[in-house]
Amino acid sequence: GAGVSQSPSNKVTEKGKDVELRCDPISGHTALYWYRQSLGQGLEFLIYFQGNSAPDKSGLPSDRFSAERTGGSVSTLTIQRTQQEDSAVYLCASSLAGLAATGELFFGEGSRLTVL
Amino acid sequence: GNSVTQMEGPVTLSEEAFLTINCTYTATGYPSLFWYVQYPGEGLQLLLKATKADDKGSNKGFEATYRKETTSFHLEKGSVQVSDSAVYFCALYSGGYQKVTFGIGTKLQVIP
User: Fold this and answer.
1) Interstrand relation of A106-107 and A43-50 (parallel, antiparallel or unpaired)
2) Which of B42, B45, B100 is opposite residue A103, by nearest beta carbon?
3) Could you tell me where the beta strands, DSSP code E, fall in A30-96?
4) pLDDT value at position A1?
5) B85-112 pLDDT, tens per residue?
């Protein structure tokens, strides 16, 4: 597609369940980011992919959070044993990197996770 | 490492007031600087950018000048409108395979 696509757009789950969030970046964008946004304000960095590797995963809040990227394209963010404090909007963004990079990020619409 | 510091909100202004949202940064080399905007219920989008010292980025009546001597990129608008109510994020990028670094965001509310 033309933009960054995220699914599901909304997810309601029960505490303790696992969830998977998907991000499909813009074709050709080698850099991919996951952020978490609570209360409609601050961006909390989670993880950054360059190709299929993650040179910076320092923002993952706990070992319940993991992310992978395959084929240098689609990424999934997995949250195991969800807790109520995981409720937030999870944003994905992609960009060019390397010599072609401008630094401009293109964001998806986000996945709103609600943990009951 | 790189960092971006921006003023905490919320900022509440009356329509037609002058807006300044401060942003300062720490980075190695010569980063590119950005302002992103997130309108209520929408995703983040690029508002403006500047790629070198003394450049001025502008869009939709907003402006920001890349000041290397003060390591700042303050966002300004001469006369805000209710439709400018949003969260504004300052960001920097050092190039190559470095990741983009964001500030915490500043919520702006413009009242009629």
Assistant:
1) unpaired
2) B100
3) 31-37, 43-50, 53-56, 65-69, 75-79, 88-95
4) 54
5) 999 999 999 887 788 899 999 999 999 9
Beta bridge partners of A78: A20, A66
Pairwise CB contact (< 8 Å): B97 & A50: yes
Which of A19 and A70 is assigned the larger pLDDT? Answer: A19
Residue type, A77: L
Interface of B with A (CB under 8 A): 9, 31-32, 34, 36, 40, 42-46, 49, 51, 87, 89, 91-93, 95-97, 99-100, 102, 104-105, 107
pLDDT tier for residue A109 given thresholds of 50, 70 and 90: very high
Question: Which residue of B98, B101, B107 to mutate against A (max A Cβ within 10 Å)?
Answer: B98
Interchain contact, B100 vs A33, CB within 8 Å: yes
